[in-house]
């Protein structure tokens, strides 16, 4: 097995920095909410400002502006929901819905034999969709996609329970705890499943074994 497989899986995270950055606006919301006398407006302002600052810093460091605009838009949308309802816990509602949608999408991709792990890694490695003609890789990607379903389901269960209980501070804490640490664990498990699922003589992710050749 080659190191390129591990590198490709690590690339799925977009780097640990991206996952860490994603947890900063929710933490800023909770901090602003507490320091502002439990004001949703103060929390929303803190989250949006934090999201903008993080976005600008990452663009300066060479990140793609398009992806950062989307992340800032998600923060703004979350703040808008909380402002509209007046409930601070609703800042996390959009994140719960996005994780639920992600769990369904990943599970559906496995069922229809287009596992999203294979789609993403295929694009990262430049193999595009040739992996689908390799029965071993297709099977391995399907099995290794289940940990990704699991991480989204776990977030929905934890965030959903805390949202229902109105635990704003705990939502902020768990939003950080279940962001990059959980993603790192998910990639590690997926990497392990891939290694266990592929035959020992398989050339690796960058070299799909296509019956009959190209």
Automatic annotation (TrEMBL):
<feature type="transmembrane region" description="Helical">
    <location>
        <begin position="103"/>
        <end position="125"/>
    </location>
</feature>
<dbReference type="Pfam" id="PF11361">
    <property type="entry name" value="DUF3159"/>
</dbReference>
<keyword id="KW-1133">Transmembrane helix</keyword>
<feature type="transmembrane region" description="Helical">
    <location>
        <begin position="42"/>
        <end position="60"/>
    </location>
</feature>
<keyword id="KW-0472">Membrane</keyword>
<feature type="transmembrane region" description="Helical">
    <location>
        <begin position="67"/>
        <end position="83"/>
    </location>
</feature>
<protein>
    <submittedName>
        <fullName>DUF3159 domain-containing protein</fullName>
    </submittedName>
</protein>
<feature type="transmembrane region" description="Helical">
    <location>
        <begin position="146"/>
        <end position="166"/>
    </location>
</feature>
<dbReference type="InterPro" id="IPR016566">
    <property type="entry name" value="UCP010219"/>
</dbReference>
<keyword id="KW-0812">Transmembrane</keyword>
């Amino acid at each position: 097995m080659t190191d390129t497989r591990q590198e490709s899986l690590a690339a799925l995270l977009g780097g640990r920095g991206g996952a860490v950055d994603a947890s900063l606006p929710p933490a800023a919301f909770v901090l602003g909410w507490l320091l502002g006398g439990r004001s949703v407006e103060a929390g929303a302002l803190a989250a949006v400002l934090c999201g903008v600052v993080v976005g600008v810093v990452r663009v300066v460091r060479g990140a793609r502006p398009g992806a950062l605009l989307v992340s800032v838009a998600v923060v703004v949308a979350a703040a808008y929901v909380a402002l509209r309802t007046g409930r601070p816990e609703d800042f996390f509602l959009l994140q719960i819905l996005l994780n639920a949608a992600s769990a369904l999408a990943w599970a559906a991709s496995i069922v229809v034999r287009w596992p999203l792990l294979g789609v993403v890694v295929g694009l990262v490695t430049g193999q595009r969709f040739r992996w689908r003609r390799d029965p071993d890789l297709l099977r391995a990607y399907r099995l290794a996609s289940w940990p990704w379903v699991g991480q989204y389901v776990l977030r929905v269960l934890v965030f959903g329970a805390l949202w229902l209980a109105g635990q704003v501070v705990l939502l902020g804490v768990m939003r950080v705890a279940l962001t990059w640490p959980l993603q790192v664990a998910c990639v590690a498990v997926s990497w392990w499943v891939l290694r266990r699922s592929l035959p020992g003589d398989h050339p690796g992710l960058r070299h799909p074994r296509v019956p009959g050749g190209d």
